[in-house]
C-alpha cells in the first residue's frame, strides 16, 4: 500500500491560515464582591429607539448607554481605593489621567466635553476586540501605552472623573468598532428570565439583579441625601436620649409602584414601621422613616430592616443591628 504525505506547500499553506477568531472571556473589572461591596447600576442600552432597556428588557439602562457600570455603594469606598483590573489579557492602546474626581453637573465640575470617559484605559485583546475602562480615580492609572496586561493586572482605581455622578467604572466592550453587550453578545432580542445568562462573555455566573438595596443605616434625624450617597449618614453613637431613631434605605433600579418597607424593632417591640411606595422609575432612590424620642429609649439591642418589594415579591432585604446605650 502506498502512503501519501502532505507536500511542503500544503503544510506551509495550512500554517499560514489564520486561526479562527475567538470571543474573549471576560472577568469582572473590579476588586469587589458583586451584590455586597459593589453592584451593577446600568447595562448596555438594547433599545434602538429613544427609550432604554437592558438585555432583559428591564429598566437598568438609559438611552444610548454603551457599557456596563460597576458601581461602589458610597463615596467613602472610592477614597479607600478599589482596584480596577483588565477584564482579559491584551495590550494597552492608550490611557488618560489627571482629570478631577468631581460629580458631573455639580457647581465646581469641569467641562468634560470630548473627555466624557474621564481617566481611563483602552486594552486591545486581538481579533478586533477592545475593552475600555472609564471614570477612574485621578492619579491612579498604573499602566501605559504598549504594556502587556493580564486579567490580574491593576489598571488603576475606581473614581468619579469625566461624565460620572457616582463612583463607578464604565466597562465598554467593542468588536471591530461595534459595541457588544457582554451579557448578550449575540444581540438576540429576548425578554425576561430566558434572556439571563444565555451565552455571555463572562468567565463566571453573573447574577442579574433588577434593582436592590445599596445601603441601610440608622440616624438620629432624616439624613441629607448627599450624606447618604457619601456613606456618612449613619449615626456613630446612639443613646437613650438620642432625639430620634431614623432608618433609611438607599436603593437602585427602583420602578414606579415598588415598595420600600422600613422598620425598627427594639427590646420592647416595634419602634416604627412604614411602607414607602415609589411614584416613579429612577436609577437610585432614598427613603427614610423615624420616630421622636418618647422620653427615653430602652437600653439594649435593636434592629433596623429595609425591604424592597416589587409586585408583592421581595427582591432585596438588608438589616442593620445596633445598640442603645445609657
From TrEMBL:
Residues 1-21 form the signal peptide. Residues 64-182 form the M23ase beta-sheet core domain. Coiled coil: none annotated. Keywords: Signal. The keyword Transmembrane helix does not apply. SUPFAM superfamilies: Duplicated hybrid motif (SSF51261). It comes from the Bacteria. The keyword Signal applies. Gene3D superfamilies: Glucose Permease (Domain IIA). One of its GO terms (molecular function) is metalloendopeptidase activity. This is Peptidase family M23. The lineage of its organism: Bacteria, Pseudomonadati, Pseudomonadota, Alphaproteobacteria, Rhodobacterales.
Amino acid at each position: 500500500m502506498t502512503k501519501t504525505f502532505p507536500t511542503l506547500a500544503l503544510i506551509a499553506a495550512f500554517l499560514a491560515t489564520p486561526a479562527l477568531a475567538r470571543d474573549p472571556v471576560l472577568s469582572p473589572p473590579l476588586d469587589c464582591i458583586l451584590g455586597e461591596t459593589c453592584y451593577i447600576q446600568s447595562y448596555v442600552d438594547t433599545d434602538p429607539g429613544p427609550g432604554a432597556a437592558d438585555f432583559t428588557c428591564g429598566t437598568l439602562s438609559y438611552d444610548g448607554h454603551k457599557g456596563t457600570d460597576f458601581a461602589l455603594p458610597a463615596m467613602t469606598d472610592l477614597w479607600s481605593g478599589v482596584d480596577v483590573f483588565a477584564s482579559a489579557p491584551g495590550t494597552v492602546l492608550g490611557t488618560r489621567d489627571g482629570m478631577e474626581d468631581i460629580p458631573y453637573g455639580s457647581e465646581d465640575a469641569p467641562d468634560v466635553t470630548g473627555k466624557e470617559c474621564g481617566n481611563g484605559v483602552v486594552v486591545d485583546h486581538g481579533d478586533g476586540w477592545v475593552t475600555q475602562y472609564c471614570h477612574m480615580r485621578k492619579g491612579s492609572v498604573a499602566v501605559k501605552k504598549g504594556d502587556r496586561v493580564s486579567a490580574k493586572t491593576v489598571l488603576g482605581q475606581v473614581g468619579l472623573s469625566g461624565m460620572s455622578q457616582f463612583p463607578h467604572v464604565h466597562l465598554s466592550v467593542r468588536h471591530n468598532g461595534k459595541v457588544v453587550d457582554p451579557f448578550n453578545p449575540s444581540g438576540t432580542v429576548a425578554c425576561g428570565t430566558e434572556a439571563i445568562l444565555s451565552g455571555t462573555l463572562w468567565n463566571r455566573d453573573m447574577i442579574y439583579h433588577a434593582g436592590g438595596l445599596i445601603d441601610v443605616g440608622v440616624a438620629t434625624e432624616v439624613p441629607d441625601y448627599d450624606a447618604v450617597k457619601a456613606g456618612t449618614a449613619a449615626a456613630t453613637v446612639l443613646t437613650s436620649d438620642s432625639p430620634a431613631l431614623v432608618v433609611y434605605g438607599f436603593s437602585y433600579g427602583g420602578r414606579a409602584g415598588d415598595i420600600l418597607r422600613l422598620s425598627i424593632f427594639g427590646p420592647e417591640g416595634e419602634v416604627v414601621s412604614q411602607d414607602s411606595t415609589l411614584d416613579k422609575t429612577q436609577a437610585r432612590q432614598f427613603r427614610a422613616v423615624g420616630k421622636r424620642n418618647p422620653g427615653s429609649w430602652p437600653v439594649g439591642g435593636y434592629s433596623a430592616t429595609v425591604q424592597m418589594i416589587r409586585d408583592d415579591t421581595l427582591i432585596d432585604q438588608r438589616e442593620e443591628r445596633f445598640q442603645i446605650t445609657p
